[in-house]
Please model this.
Amino acid sequence: MKRRFNPNFQEEPVNPRASLACVLAASVQMALIGCNQGARGGSATVDPKSNQWFVAAASNDSAALGAAAVAGADPNAHEPRDFNTPLHVAAIAGNDAAIRALLAAGASPDAIDEDGRTPLMIACHRSNTSAAILLVDAPTDQQVRDRQMQTALMFAAKNGELDVVVAMIARNAPLNAQRADGWTALHLAAREGHVEVARALKNAGASTTIVDKRGRSARDVAVSARRPEVAAVLVGP
Model:
């Protein structure tokens, strides 16, 4: 993000000790970021043109996928701009063959991009149903949160991806996780009017009494959004 020019801004004299402290703090922070990326299956940051998996993941071409595997390209490499891995690229495009090939080559389904999102989150966000189910079954760690504290289940519930939600429930998805504003997957399904998703979540044990930071339950959200069918499903515990 670019900073706005402030004509009244005046620089303070540089304090050498403070500058050294900032450098050291930045070094520690970068080291921690690197450790976190490694824990999520991160690898080297590369130019996508230099790694055959990126092209293959986008094209879904069998010959390109085979060539990437034979070449021994790193399936967990990150591109520098969005910090996507080839698996993120395949999830964005909904390329099932690429997802299978990458997982077979050792791609981490838990790798995160610059927003803290896994390929599964991206597939759910894009409503790429079959790709999402492949990633659920990889399996992917569904406890992962992005920068807004959202889980993959929240993305699927918001978009009414019933088959994906059911697959996630079977893999013990965190039903009552709350994002930064206090909303759960059930709140999101309620607002969008996804009756069957709301029913599946409730039947699996999702709480109907959790409230957001404004004190609203999922049923309150359904009523406010004029989703009477969902509100009816959410009556009672």
